[in-house]
Amino acid sequence: VFVPTEQKIALVNALSEAGLAKIEVTAFVSPKAIPALRDAEVVMRKIRRRPGVVYSALVPNVRGAERAIESRADELNLVMSASESHNLCNLRMTREQSLAALTQVARAGHDAGVAINASLSCSFGCPMEGDVPAPEVMDWCDRLVNQLGARGLTLCDTTGMAYPGQVLALTRAFRERWPAVELTLHF
User: Fold this and answer.
1) Of 66, 86, 106, 170, which is least surrounded by CB within 10 A?
2) pLDDT value at position 161?
């Protein structure tokens, strides 16, 4: 269902007024693939920007990054999966192919002076593979931080498999390794 553009703008404006520090406003994906987000540029351009709020946009490729940058996104959110099976099903690429593609996207963001956040899906488990070993998740985090220059990283539960002890252990391991990288969690 297409949510009217003015309603999307009103929601983002209300979230800004509520005092949130960061809002992922929209996704710059192909309008043919996801028609509900065909108004991404309009939404980004018409929101009321509150000083101090970071307005982020999900971007899957270089064209999406270009559109987001032109629309004044403060941050580009790049997505791939910690699980090879999930990445193949969701993005139709291997993780290595995703990383190569995201490197180009990150470069476009860096060249434009726009911050990069990377979201790692299935960080707490995969519906196809089961547990994703913590060292494997940490290896992909390392690559996203060091190869993409991500200043922020989101560990994503994606399918509801996370449990408290696992979340605690993974977030502690992340914090110990990258204390200066902004860490967010997506459940």
Assistant:
1) 66
2) 96
Distance CA 24, CA 56 (A): 4
Q: What is the pLDDT of residue 1?
A: 85
Pairing of strands 75-81, 54-58: parallel
pLDDT mean values, one per 10 residues, the chain (187 residues):
96 97 96 95 98 96 96 97 96 96 97 98 97 97 97 96 97 97 96
Whole-prediction pTM value? 0.93
The three-state (H, E, C) secondary structure of 73-126, written as one string: CCEEEEEEECCHHHHHHHHCCCHHHHHHHHHHHHHHHHHHCCEEEEEEECCCCE
